[in-house]
Amino acid sequence: MILSFNQPSFIPWSGFFARLIASDKMVLLDNTLFAQGFTFVNRNRIKSPDGELRITVPVEKKGLGRQKIKDLVIYQKEYWAKKFLLTLELCYKKSIFFNNIYDPIFEILNKQDNNFLNMALPILKHLKTSFNIKNEFILQTNTGIESSGTDLLIEIATHLKATEVLLPYPAQNLIEWKKFIKKGIKVKFLKFFSPVYPQFWGKFAGNLSALDLLFCLGEESHKLLETSYILEPAL
Asked: In angstroms, rounded to a whole number, what is the distance separating the alpha carbons of residues 85 and 109?
């Protein structure tokens, strides 16, 4: 079994789903710490009539110290959700795929409570379905494993009986990947090339949220993702 890892993220970029396509299962590290500085866990970019637009989910921080992703609470959720939905309408209403993608997000935001993960996870599953990806997500909390760093990933991979792990290409300088090999687990790195496709609103912008790709191409985006990466075995 090929396993990949990622922190659960709000409307992540297309490279996230390319790794899911190339894996059998992806573990969402919901029991890890939310970064104190810049992070894409709660933000990404879409395309607007005025160019790239950053969308950020505001989370409560005051007096809470370092928080785990599973414990994050959306600040003024109703106000933020209304603004986000209006922004999607402004940016993508002209898409012939708009209703199929937008309507489930509308339902999720109006049904879920103010817990960040309870909002982000259903949207991730909706985007996965929209990309016609069958491979599964597994929450770290469901494994019962609470380690850190590379040891966390190794323990999860061992627990799930993975024979191979798939890591993002930049991770080769950030993760002690040779530890996997010592445990008998193969390692490959995925190098993602942001695909070029017809977009709304002028000049092409790469590395946006996967939402942009879906609104522009619908189910055809799956084929584009499959040709937008290469796999390199660890040396």
From this structure: 9
Q: Residue 213 burial (CB < 10 Å; 0-12/13-18/19+)?
A: buried
170 contact partners, CB below 8 Å, separation of at least 6? none
Can you tell me whether residue 59 is helix, strand or coil?
strand
Of 219, 173, 213, 180, which is closest to residue 197 (Cα–Cα)?
213
Q: The whole model's pTM is what?
A: 0.95
> Beta strands 229-233 and 186-192: pairing type?
antiparallel
Query: What is the sign, positive or negative, of the torsion defined by CA atoms of 167, 171, 174, 178?
Result: positive
Chain position carrying tokens 């016609």: 132
CA–CA dist 219, 91 (Å, integer): 19
Query: Are 132 and 222 spatial neighbours (Cβ–Cβ below 8 Å)?
Result: yes
**Location of structure tokens 């996965």:** 128
How far is residue 116's CA from residue 65's CA, in Å, rounded to a whole number?
16
Q: Give helix 210-217 / helix 98-111 axis angle, nearest 10°.
A: 140
User: Strand, coil or helix: what is 158?
Assistant: helix
Which sequence spans correspond to the domains of the chain? Answer: 2-233
Are 208 and 46 in contact by the 8 Å Cβ rule? The answer is yes
What's the pLDDT tens digit per position in 55-70?
999 999 988 888 999 9
